[in-house]
Amino acid sequence: MSTAAHTYGGVPVPYTVSWSAEDAFRVDHCQHANARAICQSVAPGQGKPQFGKPHSQRQREAIADDLCDLCGRTLRNKTKVSLSHARPRMNGANGLAILQVEPLLHRQCAATSLRHCPSLKRDVETGKVVIRQVTRHRVQFAIMSPEFVGTYVPGYVAGPKERIVGHAKVELLRWVDRDASWLLRTAEGQP
């Protein structure tokens, strides 16, 4: 069973969440994107979790290396779940796809997230977040404008042809829409 590496106040903290001690940004080489990217200081578990603010490197790492958003362990050969506001659009590399910045999760970790996160629970109930079982996906990296880079790294001036990576995206290529009862059955040990 997968579990979060950190908790705060008894609540599991996703692997990709920024902590308050991780507030310094710079442009540097990112091994997960294999490119220059917006990078962030690294001190997971120190300070307070900044729910809703993903850590720049851990977000890219989770997507590029196919790791679970909650526990940070591999998703290979496991049921992969998307919990996202993203909807199908025609702007995928090959047409219809879903592009999301939220990393995928193990089914059990997605159930844990739904049980513990009030905003996620509310958004699933109102249909704003869709639960999807993902059967095929790939990685994309967002190239950020010099103005955007400057908001994170004040004083940094990108060269005219410099390409700085921001966040990673999961492009869902095949999926099955599911509901909360399918997800939560996992927590009860049912198929």
Task: Please sum up the structure shown.
With 191 residues, this protein is an alpha+beta fold.
* Through-space gap between termini: 15 Å
Total strand segments: 12
Please report the number of helical segments: 5
Give the integer mean of the pLDDT values. Answer: 91
Please mark out the parts with pLDDT under 50 across 5 or more consecutive residues, or reply none: none
Strand order, sheet with most strands: 8-9-12-11-7-10
SSE ordering:
EEEEEEHEEEEHHEHEH
Globally, the shape reads globular
Keywords:
39% strand, six-stranded antiparallel beta sheet, 5 helices, two-stranded antiparallel ribbon, alpha+beta, single chain, 22% helix, 191 residues, 12 strands
Structure description:
By secondary structure, the chain is an alpha+beta fold. The strands form four sheets. The chain has a six-stranded antiparallel sheet with strand order 8-9-12-11-7-10. Strands 1-2 form a two-stranded antiparallel sheet. Helix 2 crosses helix 3 and helix 2 packs across helix 5. The longest helix is centred in the middle third of the chain and has 10 residues.
